[in-house]
Design brief:
The chain is mainly beta and 161 residues long. The chain has helices at residues 6-12, 60-65, 79-84; strands at residues 17-18, 20-25, 31-36, 40-43, 48-54, 68-73, 98-100, 106-108, 113-125, 128-140, 146-149, 152-155. It has a single domain (19-142), classed as Roll (Pnp Oxidase, Chain A), CATH 2.30.110. The chain is globular and about 45 Å long. Bound molecules: flavin mononucleotide.
Length: 161
């Protein structure tokens, strides 16, 4: 069956992005993670970011209910994590692989950068919701990013400084 959205997806996919795992804690405090490339910066003062979640995602209810979320920017060598958390019902992340900062959302110990964020606004937007949040804590480390372009992975240059 042909996908009627393929031409639009092809054009949108020409915009190269990084890859991140968005995370939150569910009502029982368990870590929930989802591969995303819709993450973007919004404002510096106050520090605001956003990403968009598909309403059909099995993690939608958890993210809509969570008061905070994390963004874990993946390194070039972390493609397996991207694939794992883009799959339905992935093997949960190990407790020893994550830490918790302020909001309780899971922060990957191995990451290029991380942001722990308090949700400020949830906007209905077609078949997605836009989750705008204030960055409460962040860090950035050395390494090269995992990139996503035209439905394929790539590798970016090493970060400087
Ligand atoms: C590189 C990449 C980027 C993605 N970006 C998003 C995104 O920004 N928002 C989103 O809701 N899903 C995104 N997805 C899809 C989800 O990771 C996931 O595949 C989807 O929620 C299916 O899981 P489910 O069957 O448990 O609902 C992306 C997938 C990949 C591979």
């Amino acid at each position: 069956m042909t996908d009627p959205f393929r031409p639009l997806k092809n054009a949108l996919g020409r915009f190269a992005t990084g890859v991140a795992l968005a995370g939150c804690a569910d009502r029982a405090g368990r870590p929930v993670l989802l591969t995303v490339n819709s993450f973007t910066s919004v404002s510096l003062a106050p520090p605001l970011v956003l990403w968009c979640i598909e309403k059909k995602a099995s993690t939608f209810i958890a993210f809509m209910a969570a008061p905070g979320y994390s963004i874990n920017v993946l390194k070039a060598g972390q493609r397996a994590l991207s694939d794992r958390f883009a799959a339905h019902a992935p093997e949960p992340i190990g407790a020893d692989e994550v830490e918790r900062w302020i909001t309780g959302a899971p922060i990957l110990k191995d990451r290029l950068a991380a942001f722990d964020c308090a949700v400020r606004d949830r906007h209905d937007a077609g078949d997605h919701a836009i989750l705008i949040a204030e960055v409460l804590r962040f860090d950035a480390g050395p390494g090269a990013p995992l990139l996503y372009f035209a439905s394929r992975y790539g590798e970016g240059p090493e970060a400087e400084g």
